[in-house]
Design a protein that fits this description.
This protein is α+β, with helices and mostly antiparallel strands. It contains four helices and 30 strands. Strand 12 and strand 13 form a beta hairpin. It is extended.
Length: about 575
C-alpha cells in the first residue's frame, strides 16, 4: 500500500511577533477615595428575588432516514484451491493429483501432526458425553415462562393516501408470501384519488411489493387458493368478487357481474373444498351469502338470505365475517352479522341453504349477543365445535349446542377488531385492540388474565392472520402497515397432553352452561306457578300466628285497639 505525506512549510517572520512576559513588582496605578454622601442616592432593598437555572437551551429536531432499497444479485461460486495446471472439472485430473500428493512425505507428516490433536478431542468425547440429554423420558409439567414477541419486519403501503389493512392472507405453501387487502371503510372518507390496488409481499423483501393486484374498487378481503397458490379470490368495496390468476397478470381474470353480485361491500371470502378447487363463498353487508364457481362468475351457484328468523316479518342481517372449516363439516358455515348475532348456515346438496341457529339472539332463545358487528368468527382448529367471536369490547367463546356464550374475556377499555386461534396450540388465541395492542390468552396456563400484551402499533389494529406453522403472525393497522411478528417457542410448541386437557376444560364449561340453562328453566316454571296461585287460588295462612305477629307489631308501635290489622279476605286460613 502506498503511503502519502505532505510537509507544511512557513517562514518564521510570517508567524508574527511572539509574546514576552516578565516578572515585575506590584504598584498602585490609581485610587478612588471613599464618599459616604453617595450612599444617599440608593435605597436599601431587603428582599431580592432571583431565578437561576443551569439548563442549557436545547432545540429538538426530527430526522427520518431515507429508505434503503436493496436489489438481488447473482453470484456463482466454483471450486477453488487447485493449481493452475489442474482442471477441477475433470475427475481424472483431480484424482491423479490427490494420489501424487498422498505419496509426498510432507503430506504424511502434516496428517500425523493434525491427528494428535484430533485423537485428544475424540478421547475426551468418549470419556464425557457432552450431548447427553437428561430427563428425556420424563414429561415436565406446564410451567409459566416469559412469553415474548419480536417484530421481524414492517410492510408499508406504498400509496400516499392512508388506507387500512382490512384482511391478510398467507401463502398456503409456507411462510414466504402474504397478500394484504387495503381499503378505507369509514363512511364517505374515500377520496376520488385513492389507489385501488392491493399488494402481495415477499417476506424476504420488505421495501417493494412482490406483485400488485389491480381492481376497479378497493379490495376488502383476498385469500389464496389452497390447492393452487396462483389463484386468488377477492371481495371489493363495490360488491364485485374478483378472481385472479397470477400466471396471467395482476388484473382480474374474471369478476362477478353487477346483476347477480352483492350490492354492498364484500367483507369476507373463503375457498371451499371441492374436486375442481374452484368453488368459493362470499358474504356482504347486503344480507346475502353467495356461493360461486370461478369458472363461471356470471351466475351464482347458491344463495342464502341472512335474516333474524322471524316468519311473519323477517329482518335482514348484514354479514361482516365468514368462517368455514373442512374438519367441522363441509356443509357448515358461520356468519357474523352487523347486529352482534352469529348465524349457523347449512348447505346441503340439491337443497336450499338453511339457517339452523341464531347464536345470541334473544328472539330465538339465545343470549349474550355482541353490542357491535361481529368482525371475526374463528373455529378452534383442534376442537371444531367451539368458536371464538369478537364484536365489541370483549371476546366470547361459543359452542354449537349452546345458544349463548360459554366463556368470555373481561371488557377492554378499547374496541376489539380481530381475533385468531393459534394453529399449533389448542388453548392459545390472539385479540387485536384498537389502541394498537395485541393480547395473547393462554387458557392452558390461566383463564383469568392475559398471558402477554404487545404494543404493535400506535394506530388501531384492524386485521390479524397467523401462519399455519404458528411461528409468524401478521398484524395490519389503520395506517396501512403490516407488522410481521415472530412468536416465541412458548406460544408455538404445544405442551404435553395440551389438546386433551383443553378439550376436557371445554366440555366442563359446556356442562356448566347446560346446567345453568336447566336451572333457569326450572326457576321460570316455579315463578309461573306462583303467579297462577294468587288470592283467588287461596294461599294457606295460619290465622293464629298471623294475629299474634300483628298484635306484636302494633304493640311495638304503641298502638292499641280492636280494628287495626288487615283482613284475611282472599286467603284461606288454616284450621287448627
Amino acid at each position: 500500500m502506498n503511503e502519502y505525506e505532505y510537509i507544511y512549510m512557513k517562514k518564521r517572520r510570517d508567524f508574527g511577533r511572539y509574546c514576552n512576559f516578565d516578572g515585575v513588582d506590584a504598584k498602585i496605578l490609581g485610587q478612588v477615595d471613599r464618599q459616604p454622601q453617595c450612599g444617599d442616592m440608593y435605597v436599601e432593598q431587603t428582599i431580592i428575588n432571583a431565578v437561576f437555572h443551569n439548563i442549557p437551551t436545547m432545540s429538538e429536531h426530527s430526522v427520518n432516514t431515507a429508505r434503503v432499497k436493496t436489489n438481488s444479485r447473482v453470484m456463482n461460486h466454483v471450486e477453488g484451491g487447485w493449481p493452475k495446471e489442474i482442471d477441477y472439472s475433470e475427475a481424472q485430473d483431480t484424482l491423479k493429483y490427490r494420489k501424487r500428493l498422498e505419496k509426498d512425505p510432507m503430506y504424511i507428516s502434516a496428517v500425523r501432526q493434525l491427528a494428535k490433536q484430533t485423537v485428544m478431542c475424540l478421547e475426551q468425547n468418549t470419556t464425557i458425553d457432552l450431548f447427553e440429554i437428561y430427563f428425556q423420558d420424563e414429561e415436565p409439567d406446564h410451567l409459566p415462562e416469559n412469553l415474548t414477541m419480536k417484530t421481524v419486519a414492517l410492510f408499508k403501503d406504498p400509496s400516499d393516501e392512508s388506507r387500512s389493512v382490512t384482511k391478510i392472507g398467507w401463502h398456503p405453501e409456507g411462510p414466504t408470501k402474504l397478500v394484504g387487502s387495503y381499503s378505507n371503510l369509514r363512511f364517505q372518507r374515500m377520496s376520488e384519488d385513492m389507489p385501488m390496488a392491493s399488494f402481495i409481499w415477499d417476506i424476504s423483501e420488505r421495501n417493494v411489493p412482490l406483485m400488485e393486484l389491480r381492481a376497479t374498487s378497493p379490495l376488502i378481503c383476498c385469500q389464496y387458493n389452497h390447492k393452487n397458490p396462483d389463484l386468488l379470490i377477492g371481495g371489493s368495496y363495490s360488491g364485485l368478487v374478483n378472481y385472479y390468476d397470477l400466471r396471467k397478470g395482476p388484473s382480474p381474470a374474471t369478476k362477478s357481474s353487477v346483476e347477480v353480485g352483492h350490492y354492498d361491500p364484500v367483507y369476507d371470502v373463503v375457498w371451499l373444498q371441492s374436486k375442481t378447487g374452484t368453488e368459493c363463498a362470499s358474504v356482504s353487508s347486503d344480507g346475502r351469502l353467495l356461493f360461486w364457481d370461478v369458472r363461471k362468475m356470471t351466475e351464482v351457484m347458491d344463495e342464502c338470505t341472512l335474516n333474524d328468523g322471524n316468519k311473519d316479518n323477517p329482518k335482514t342481517l348484514g354479514g361482516v365475517s365468514l368462517e368455514w372449516m373442512q374438519e367441522a363439516g363441509p356443509t357448515k358455515f358461520l356468519v357474523g352479522s352487523e347486529h352482534g348475532i352469529i348465524l349457523s348456515c347449512t348447505k346441503r346438496p340439491k337443497k336450499q341453504v338453511e339457517i339452523g341457529t341464531w347464536f345470541g339472539s334473544e328472539d330465538r332463545g339465545g343470549y349474550g349477543r355482541h353490542f357491535g358487528p361481529v368482525y371475526s368468527v374463528k373455529r378452534n382448529p383442534f376442537h371444531v365445535k367451539f368458536f371464538l367471536t369478537v364484536g365489541d369490547w370483549c371476546g366470547k367463546m361459543w359452542m354449537e349446542e349452546l345458544k349463548g356464550p360459554m366463556l368470555q374475556t373481561p371488557y377492554y377499555p378499547s374496541f376489539i377488531s380481530a381475533a385468531s386461534w393459534s394453529p399449533t396450540r389448542a388453548g392459545v388465541f390472539f385479540l387485536c385492540r384498537q389502541d394498537g395492542r395485541l393480547d395473547t390468552w393462554d387458557y392452558f396456563y390461566r383463564m383469568n388474565e392475559v398471558a402477554l400484551t404487545q404494543q404493535v402499533s400506535d394506530r388501531a389494529l384492524t386485521s390479524l392472520s397467523v401462519q399455519a406453522q404458528g411461528r409468524l403472525a401478521a398484524v395490519g393497522d389503520a395506517g396501512g402497515v403490516i407488522t410481521l411478528l415472530n412468536l416465541c417457542d412458548g406460544l408455538v410448541d404445544p405442551a404435553p397432553n395440551e389438546k386433551n386437557l383443553i378439550g376436557v376444560m371445554f366440555d366442563r364449561e359446556t356442562k356448566r352452561e347446560k346446567n345453568l340453562e336447566q336451572i333457569k328453566k326450572q326457576a321460570g316454571g316455579a315463578k309461573k306457578d306462583e303467579k297462577d296461585t294468587g288470592p283467588a287460588g287461596g294461599m294457606v295462612i295460619d290465622e293464629e300466628k298471623y294475629h299474634e305477629r300483628e298484635k306484636a307489631f302494633f304493640s311495638e308501635l304503641g298502638m292499641s285497639g280492636d280494628d287495626l290489622g288487615t283482613s284475611l279476605s282472599g286467603v284461606k286460613a288454616a284450621k287448627s
